[in-house]
């Protein structure tokens, strides 16, 4: 979106749902809504049911900071990541901490896991404390979660994923483009019997599906795919390679949904006496620090987490100050870092 758009407060773009809205929807006074929230035993069951139905329908989350000795802004920003295990998101978190700190904000990190109910519960707790911004990993939220976020009026930045319908602002990364690029990369290196070891989260599934489609479009046999519980591990890589070989003995390339899983595949390949990359090529995802120092070193898909963190900080700060960022949707690129494993 053009940067010459008139400056607007965040409430004018995405106004938060208020007690007044809930009272109007329930057909009661605002004081009744307050009582239903704070002292539900003081409200009749029928009225409580009407108020709760309105809260649910509107996605209202009570402001837990209301009435405290608080300025109109909290100077707090929350980032939600599915896991803090490993270091896939550490570059983003480090850059967010540094960039927001320079602007006078403190960062709070929340671990949402890979299931939507856990994220919804965490979102309610976060929204109730009214941070100045929320940075989310991914765009796969439940309908309730999306409603909560839209109704909050809080500036939102979704990251590490792509969608045509962002909640607010988006740092877009196409996992389908990644899967396709890796399959083509392996094909260019003469790898014709490709396979995938992937986590069971939505982003890993998108990469795997696109990888399979691309391989088949290139005229290759349909790649074997195994999904394992996320976050993925070194042990899953070892076990996953054995499972793939049981399905097809002559696999010559494996795309893994994490570098940690790729390291496990390499370990198992060495144990079996396979030559890497001649007998088996391996590609990971995330370009974690150890990928370059492994022996053989791991070819991996690099995504600039630091750039994501810095851009998200700029977007949050602009919106928290009633301004529009230069762009509300920004494409985040990736590239394949070729190393010894391919």
From TrEMBL:
Residues 17-71 form the HTH lacI-type domain. The keyword Transcription regulation applies. SUPFAM superfamilies: lambda repressor-like DNA-binding domains (SSF47413), Periplasmic binding protein-like I (SSF53822). Gene3D superfamilies: 3.40.50.2300, lambda repressor-like DNA-binding domains. Keywords: DNA-binding, Membrane, Transcription, Transcription regulation, Transmembrane, Transmembrane helix. Pfam families: LacI, Peripla_BP_3. GO terms for molecular function: DNA-binding transcription factor activity; transcription cis-regulatory region binding. It comes from the Bacteria. The chain crosses the membrane at residues 75-96. The keyword Zinc does not apply. This is GntR family transcriptional regulator. It comes from Bordetella genomosp. 4.
């Amino acid at each position: 979106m053009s940067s010459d758009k008139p400056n607007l407060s965040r409430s004018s773009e995405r106004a938060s749902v208020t007690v007044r809205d809930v009272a109007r929807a329930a057909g009661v006074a605002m004081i009744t809504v307050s009582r239903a929230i704070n002292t539900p035993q003081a409200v009749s069951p029928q009225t409580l049911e009407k108020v709760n139905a309105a809260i649910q329908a509107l996605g209202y989350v009570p402001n837990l900071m209301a009435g405290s000795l608080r300025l109109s802004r909290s100077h707090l920003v929350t980032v939600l990541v599915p896991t803090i295990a490993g270091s896939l998101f550490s570059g983003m978190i480090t850059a967010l901490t540094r960039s927001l700190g320079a602007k006078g904000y403190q960062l709070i990190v929340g671990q949402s896991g890979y299931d939507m109910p856990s994220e919804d519960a965490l979102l309610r707790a976060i929204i109730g404390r009214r941070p100045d911004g929320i940075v989310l990993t991914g765009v796969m939220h439940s309908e309730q979660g999306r409603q909560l976020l839209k109704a909050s009026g809080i500036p939102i930045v979704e990251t590490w994923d792509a969608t045509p319908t962002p909640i607010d602002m988006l740092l877009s990364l196409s996992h389908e483009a990644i899967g396709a690029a890796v399959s083509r990369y392996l094909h260019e290196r003469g790898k014709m019997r490709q396979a995938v070891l992937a986590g069971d989260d939505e982003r890993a599934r998108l990469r795997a599906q696109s990888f399979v489609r691309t391989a088949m479009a290139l005229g290759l046999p349909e790649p074997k795919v195994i999904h394992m519980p996320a976050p993925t591990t070194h042990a899953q890589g070892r076990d996953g390679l054995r499972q793939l070989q049981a399905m097809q003995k002559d696999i010559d390339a494996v795309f893994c949904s994490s570098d940690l899983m790729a390291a496990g595949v390499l370990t198992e390949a060495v144990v079996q006496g396979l030559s890497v990359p001649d007998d088996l090529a391996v590609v990971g995802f995330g370009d974690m620090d150890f990928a370059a120092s492994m022996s053989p070193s791991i070819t991996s898909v690099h995504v600039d987490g630091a750039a994501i963190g810095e851009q998200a900080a700029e977007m949050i700060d602009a919106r928290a100050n009633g301004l529009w960022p230069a762009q509300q949707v920004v494409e985040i690129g990736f590239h394949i870092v070729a190393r010894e494993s391919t």
